[in-house]
Amino acid sequence: MSFQFDQNLQQQVDQFLGDVDDFITNKNGSAVEKLIGLLGSEEKSIQYNSMAMLAFANQAPNNKDVSRENGLLKIFLDYCHPSKIITVLPMVKNASMGLMFLANHSDVNKQAIADLNGIDTIFELLRDLLVMIKSPPEDVKKEDIVSTLSQTLNLVIILASLQGNREKMGTVANFLVLNSLLSYENPSSLDLQLQIQEKALSATNNICIHKENKENCRVAGVVESVFKLFYSTKPSIQDGALRMIYNMTIVDASREAIRRCKGLETLVSMLKDQPEAVSLLSLKALSNMFVDRQTIEYSVNNQDAILVPIYNVFPPAYGQGCSDNLLDQVLTVVQNLVSEENLIENVARSGIITKIVPAVKGMPLTNTTHQSILVKASCILSGLITIEEVQQAAVENGLITLLVEMIQLPSAEVRRECARALANATPYYDDVRAEIGKQGGVKLCVELLLQSDKELVKQAARSLVNLARNTHNEEALFESKGLEHSIRLINLPEKDLKMLGTKLLVNLSLNEAARIAFCQKGGLSIVTTLLVSQDPELQLQGTKIATNLAISGRNRKIMNEQAPELIPSLKALASSAVADIKLQSEVALNNLSFPYEQSYEGLDQMEDAMPIFMQSQYERDDEDEEDDDEEADARKRQEEEEIRIAAEKEVEERKRIMQEEVKRIEERRRQEQEKRVQEEQARKQREEEAEKLRKAQEEMEKLRIEEEAKEKAEQERKRIEEQKEKERLEQERIKLLDEQQKQKEAEESKRREAEAKAQEEERVRKQKEEEERIRKQKEEEERIKKEKEAEAERLRLEEEERLKKEREVEEARMRALEEEQLRKMEAEIKQREEDIRRQKIEEEERRKREEQERKLKDQQDKASQESARLAQEASRAQKRTHIVQEIMQVEVNYVKNLLLIVRKFLQPLNQIATSKRPVVTAERIAQIFSTIENIQNHNAIFSDGLTSRIKRWLADNKKDHLIIGDIFQKIGGFMNDYSKYINNYNNSIKLYNETRKANPQFAAFIKKVESDPELNDKELENLLITPVQQLPRYIMLVQDLIRNTSEDHPDFKPLTEALEKIKHITTIINEKKRDAEDAFAMLQIHQTLHGKVPNNFVAPHRKFIREGAIHFGSSSGSFKDKEPIVFLFNDMVMMTIKHPNRPNEYKYRYSTFLTPSTTIEDLPSVNNGFIIKSGQWWSFSCPTPKDKENWVEAIKKSLANLPKEALKAQTPSKK
Predict the structure, then answer these.
(1) Is there a contact between 891 and 943 (Cβ–Cβ < 8 Å)?
(2) Do residues 828 and 651 lie in contact, with contact meaning Cβ atoms separated by under 8 Å?
(3) Could you tell me what percent of the chain has a pLDDT over 90?
(4) Which residues pair with 100 in a beta bridge?
(5) What's the pLDDT at 380?
(6) What SS3 class is residue 1152?
């Protein structure tokens, strides 16, 4: 195929070739060959015209292949070499134009240029052209430089359209060239600057299409230069820069570079007062940025600069000031923002919820954009609502209303995410569950259970499991056929749905009507199936369902009499290797063993009649009340007895308070000591860290100096290389000059070299002087900095010492004040005890007088006495009925309080403890609430049995005697859980108060739950004491019932036995509590002792009696030790001194054991002294006579009550 010229160009070529025919050597060649030959002509004008015609000839696409075959690509590339731009720049301009035409017509030509190493040549040309355009030579036209540079950039853009070329072009060196072009500034010719920047940006964008090139682009510093173009006055450059950054954000390292150069802030600035297309592209770039944790963390830490402007894109309400596309894209940004689990809590606190809710509320679902917006919004809300603070505010900020609204939309994906959000919103706070129930959320979730989408069903079931923990929702779920739905879920093959069905059934079975309906509808077969399942999780849920079902007496009747496989299955699980299954099975079996009535027919009608009956009885009491003297006397005696008992209890309570105050003081002192130790450790740690930091700073400074030296050496090396390159180019230019000018130019060159050398030497000398000055200045600054740090450290140590002394003085004052308060309290208690003894004597004398008067009256009127006896028996029967009613009401209220603790506090906290951001640990929850859940289960059954028995008696019109003593005897089965709870109560309340003070989230949770109207202003701390008060309350009520029950009544003996059993249980629990407190006191003392403490010091039988600051010594009365402290135990006296360096701790000195042969005698030679004669004699000196009296009395009391272990021969331990 021959080379073709268009008609106009052909005429010009023919005329040109005719004019220069004398210079043509290849007369028979084609026009192209002749033009190529003329390129070597000595006449520059011929060269220029030949190159121009060859270049313009390639404008025609039909020459793309023949030009390559004729070697024009190589010829053009040879003339594009940087060495040509000084001598023949017009040739370079036309050669670059020819390459541009050829590359634009054919991918083969693009590849051929790359194969000829043309890419490196072109970028070298660009580098030199940029240098030239900044400082144009005098003999070169600037227009030629600009034109050549523009065409070369166009060539780069065209070559970068081929994938293989992009891979070769993406070197760091090439990006450095492009970065220089992007940074080009020419204030005097702004159009030129914008033209160069626009083309360089387009070339960079094309090259960066290849993903691997983005890293080299970042290394070359292109990112920083592109961001500067965001502020260009040319919109196309702004758009190109934004697209460039958008492409770069898919690479991790580029995102890091963007953060470093404040690129996030720049992208955010493009969201305001910009066309929608620009804002959309900026949001897309931001969306890519937020895929990594570092960007999210950076944004959260700079909320005002980054997050707030993004949030401002949201409209104040749907349809106001924000298009759907923009809203969809900003939601994509936020969706990525909340994807980092560890930072989602910080994002939630940034106010995003208050932006999303109004922006999407009321949005219809009419197109795919709406679908996308609603799906993203529901996903975001589903993640954010896992945060506790969001849950707490979910009702107030309308989030719950929005979710309930969106869950009704006709989109399975939206409903699925909304159901997930409702499930995430409801594990902890009852007010959230209640609000969802009020807005019909329970019914909506029940309807979702019928959908075919398994994931949607799963999320709806999760929501219902949590919603059912609210009393009103529980009833609504039951009314919405929640039982049937839970059974249907259990029968599904998917394990997760089956498990959710069992959990839903567990929560529903807490409802009285639901659990009775479940058993009556044959649901026990499902429970049995769960119990015999091979899956331990299903077995555990089955045992929980059985436990809840057995709370109702009528269910216990059905489960014991009509489900023969149920109890054997539970017994088999009672030996399970899984601890939870074993424990829950035992609880279920224990519930099933509780008594139940033989018939429950007619009891349902008694529900409404019970309150009327109780009220009518009290009304009749008021109407039939008579002024009976004997009954009045009995009441008076009872009141006086109650006053006396109350006084004794008051004294005991004061003693208990004083003991607790002593313990509190000891605990505070221990905590203060621990705090001081921690402060000392922290101080040492700070000093060590400061020293490490100082050394690290020194190392960093050394490294910085070395790095600066390396950089300077590298700069010097580059400068020398550049100088050599300039010299080489200069020499080539010199060779081309005429021979006549050679000598003159050589001399001029030498002169210039000499001047340049002298200037260089002067520059090096000044540079060295400046470096030496900077080094000395830095050394001086470092010296001043070290002196300031030393002075600051000295001042800090002085301040710490001053604060330490002030704290010690304050502690001494507080100890003195506390001891004075304790002495006053002891005096008040003793005075109160004396008053009670005196009142007791007076009361006894008065009772004797009244007894004598009563006997005289009885002898005078036996008929009246008999009448009074009959009236008393009638009154007793009536009182017995009232007491029974009171017992039932007390128990019902008690169970309600226990249920509040479990459902409102314990269960939500346990749920929170399993979350990724627990408010408090599961261990701390167990320590605070102890066995309260087991107690609630026990008393729920006890209350049901008691209520059913009384209802049965009323339903039979009081035909037979009412017997409830056998039910009270079952309280013995509760002893273990009550014992654990009461023993742990003091520690529980202490931990509760400590946690509430130290943990704001826990305190906020408690405060929020306590404000629930269902609690009726009850506080958790007051609720937690109810189990402690319940056993004494049982004793009081049963005693009252026995007093009003005749001995021949069938219930008298069972009640008496029940009373003895409850008293016995209470005694055992109190003893265990005292033993636990004694053991704890021994361990506390042991932890404060240092030295050779006897190995058997902490023994089960040993109990702490008292301690005091009394002097001790040998029998001679010599007291050498300073600051002595003596401890008295029930079989031992230990002598210590205060530790010199550790407050509230002691150094062990001596000890002597108390045995039956030990005696104690007065020691007149010593002030307030006495002597203990045991295996070794020890003398003691007390501060006051009163102290001596108290110590001697306490030691004698210990000798009189020595434990069995002390009866063995013991040898005293010596120092």
Answers:
(1) yes
(2) no
(3) 14
(4) none
(5) 92
(6) strand
Q: 726, exposed or middle or buried, with CB in 10 Å at 0-12, 13-18, 19+?
A: exposed
Q: Count other Cβ atoms within 10 Å, centred on residue 287.
A: 20
Please, which residues have CB within 8 angstroms of residue 1129's CB and are 6 or more apart in sequence?
1102, 1103, 1104, 1105, 1198
Query: Which positions ≥6 away from 12 have C-beta within 8 Å?
Result: 53
Query: Model confidence over 831-889: pLDDT tens digits?
Result: 877 877 888 888 888 888 888 887 777 776 665 556 656 666 667 777 777 888 888 88
| Residue bearing tokens 């965001």 | 230
Amino acid at 629: D
Tell whether 578 and 466 lie within a shared domain.
Answer: no
- Mean of per-residue pLDDT scores for the chain: 83
Q: In this predicted structure, what is the pLDDT of residue 637? A: 61
Which of 304, 375, 300, 313 has its CA nearest to residue 345? 300
Which own/partner contact pairs does 779-782 have at CB distance under 8 Å and 24+ positions apart?
782/701
Cα 331–Cα 336–Cα 338 angle in degrees, nearest 5: 95
- For residue 944, give every residue at least 6 positions away whose Cβ sits within 8 Å of its Cβ, in sequence order, or none: 551, 552, 553
Domain residues for the domain of 590 are 511-594
Q: How many domains does the chain divide into?
A: 4
Residues 1151 and 1114 in one domain: yes
Three-state DSSP class for residue 1143: coil
CB-based burial, 819-855: b 16+ in 10 Å, e otherwise: eeeeeebeeebeeeeeeeeeeeeeeeeeeeeeeeeee
Integer Cα distance of 896 and 92 in angstroms: 96
Nearest to 405 by CA among 436, 434, 449, 429: 436
| Residue 861, pLDDT score | 62
Three-state DSSP string of 327-365? HHHHHHHHHHHCCCCCCHHHHHCCCCHHHHHHHHCCCCC
Same domain, 930 and 1055: yes
> CB burial class (10 A; 0-12, 13-18, 19+) of residue 971?
buried
Does residue 208 form part of some domain?
A: no
- The sign of the dihedral angle between the CA atoms of 198, 199, 200, 205 is positive
Sheet holding 1111-1113, edge to edge: 1111-1113, 1177-1181, 1169-1173, 1159-1163
Q: What is the DSSP string of 944-967?
A: HHHHHHHHHHHHTTT-S----HHH
